[in-house]
Backbone:
């Protein structure tokens, strides 16, 4: 086990619930649950990981940036929850499979899987697109979701939850980002198909449409240096291409995912939970 942790850069924060100030204020509806979150180092993924920990879950977070994962583990440690992190490329099947084996060996199972890792690398019209960057976008958003789900599915017990972070761009066509839109549309359909394949096992599969969220990788803000600068830019004016939308803090998505993860067995499956403020 130590060898695998070292190979994957596992950084485990021991549970310190006893005597941790603030831990008693957590509503522990996810107590004893094990949650795996991809793309957990920053932005929406980080907010999701912390929200799940606040709700009582032990968290395994993965991303490609070790320093961000170390910071995440420290923050979850302060909440009194167990946390492990690993550097993982979700578009690499062998890497993902080995990571999943390590998670199961260490924690025994995965009660909650949040496929959040994503991004876009091929903006612009399809006629001018770079095939390598177009494919990279699909690899991370679609294949990353498939790989991690495939690798952990056998170890998700009855009552488990799979929550995929989708996008309104996968439901409403806009010119200029075909790779991301196609990948997220596929994630949406993957959610629906998988929900029908595993419902008899007592596993629920849903996706989240965050709407517009302030992160440092958005392309529609002039100052992307921090979440706060993006929020400030649109505090009193709309985003030009979506006037009805409100730009949200990533924590709002985290709170929604934690709520979904805590729903009792027999709840919705194959559904989309949206924070958007426009028809999709």
Residues:
């Amino acid at each position: 086990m130590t060898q695998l942790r070292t190979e994957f850069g596992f950084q485990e924060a021991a549970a310190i619930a006893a005597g941790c100030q603030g831990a008693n204020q957590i509503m522990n509806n996810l107590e004893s649950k094990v949650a795996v979150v991809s793309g957990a180092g920053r932005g929406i993924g980080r907010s999701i990981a912390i929200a799940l920990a606040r709700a009582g879950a032990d968290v395994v977070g993965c991303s490609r940036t070790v320093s961000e994962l170390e910071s995440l583990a420290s923050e979850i440690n302060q909440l009194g929850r167990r946390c492990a992190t690993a550097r993982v490329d979700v578009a690499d099947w062998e890497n993902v499979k080995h990571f999943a084996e390590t998670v199961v060996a260490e924690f025994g199972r995965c009660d909650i899987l949040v496929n959040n890792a994503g991004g876009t690398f091929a903006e612009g019209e399809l006629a001018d697109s770079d095939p390598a960057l177009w494919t990279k976008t699909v690899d991370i958003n679609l294949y990353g979701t498939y790989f991690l789900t495939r690798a952990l599915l056998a170890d998700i017990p009855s009552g488990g939850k799979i929550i995929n972070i989708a996008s309104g761009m996968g439901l409403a066509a806009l010119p200029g980002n075909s790779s991301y839109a196609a990948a997220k549309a596929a994630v949406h359909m993957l959610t629906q198909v998988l929900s029908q394949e595993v419902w008899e096992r007592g596993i629920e599969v849903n996706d989240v449409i965050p709407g517009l969220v302030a992160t440092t990788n958005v392309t529609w803000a002039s100052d992307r240096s921090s979440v706060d600068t993006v929020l400030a830019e649109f505090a009193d004016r709309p985003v030009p291409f979506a006037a009805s939308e409100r730009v949200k803090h990533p924590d709002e998505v985290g709170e929604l995912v934690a709520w979904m993860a805590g729903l009792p067995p027999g709840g919705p499956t194959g559904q989309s939970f949206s924070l958007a403020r426009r028809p999709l």
User: Anything to note?
Assistant: The radius of gyration is 18 Å. The domain at 2-213+248-274 is CATH 3.40.50.720 (Rossmann fold).
